[in-house]
Amino acid sequence: MLVQPHLFIPGPTNIPEPVRMAMNLPMEDMRSPEFPKFTLPLFEDLKKVFKMKDGRVFVFPSSGTGAWESAIENTLAPGDKVLMSSFGQFSLLWVDMATRLGLEVIHCEEEWGTGVPLEKYAEILAKDTAREIKAVFATHNETATGVSSDIAGVRKALDAANHPALLMVDGVSSVASLDMQMGAWGVDCCVSGSQKGLMLPTGLGILAVSQKALDANKAQQPRMSRCYFSFEDMIKTNDLGFFPYTPATQLLRGLRASLDMIFDEGLENIFARHTRMATAVRKAVDAWGLKLCAKEPKWHSDTVSAIMVPEGIDANNVLKTAYYRYNTSLGTGLNKVAGKVFRIGHLGALDEGMIGGVLFNVEMALLDCGVNIKAGSGTGAAAEYFRSTATKSATSRENSGLKAA
Fold first, then answer.
1. Which of 123, 300, 389, 401 minimizes the number of CB atoms within 10 Å of its CB?
2. pTM for the structure as a whole
């Protein structure tokens, strides 16, 4: 019997049917005179998701890593000093990229399970009276460890030091799921990707850029080498509604459908839904007697939970058991936490029933692997939380349905 696999990795996420169907169309002419009627509003609507005050959004046929590279290559010069921190696999990879591209990195290595070290950032920026630091990098949501960081707090540290450095943010697993206020927080480059909160297949690297970053691009001396990820090439053609190379037209059509769904639900409602789904997962983890990789509640991510397995249990066995016995894909532990954690992705298109389903399957996998939990404890805790926090609108719909019946 063929059953839809249960996908609960933190990206790529589940694709809603309207988005999938929007991509199910014949190839089209990406240089037709009609194409800008589609692309120009798309660029503007993407800006709403980032809550930008100015600037523009670039859409590259790439993963989020390509957008990382574009942000660096177009705004910084070889040898520039930058402030970065690592506390998980993806923040670490960003540090590695910056180093390989020739930047001088002031690297704050933090404990995995924590996030951006605001106090250290504030101290380093205050001491930089010569203004040698040209950019400050922060990972909004570290997918490997299930940690979210305070980007508004990074802006406060910059403002307290009256520091002009650019603020670069990795929002790959946060944008369209967690609140991203580029304008209010003074974010200059925010990186995202299509396969997370935007509910699309992998393939679009999305980079939102402030006017300050665009000005830095124009003033950049010496210029860092670039070609494919050039701002200049994109601006020249995007202004006309086109791209400097063949765009991923089907993904762009899916993006249009995704944005329509996002605006229909409302960004604030989406953020609240993600918090609610994540809280239910955390309730289950508590009921199992397990712990999150995130060291404190202030670090808890609303898009992914990295769950520690007990001593003597291999998380990889939990992953394999869930996959082969219960048709469920969970996120693996990476680098320092390999074999120590499994991850439940709870972002994008999901609801209470989907969360209940993955918790049910995780419980069985944990029990099969010898983890001492009580069957039904986690799912029960999540169910009680969902019932006690049911929204008025949901209750109203239920009452209407009962009366109609």
1. 401
2. 0.95
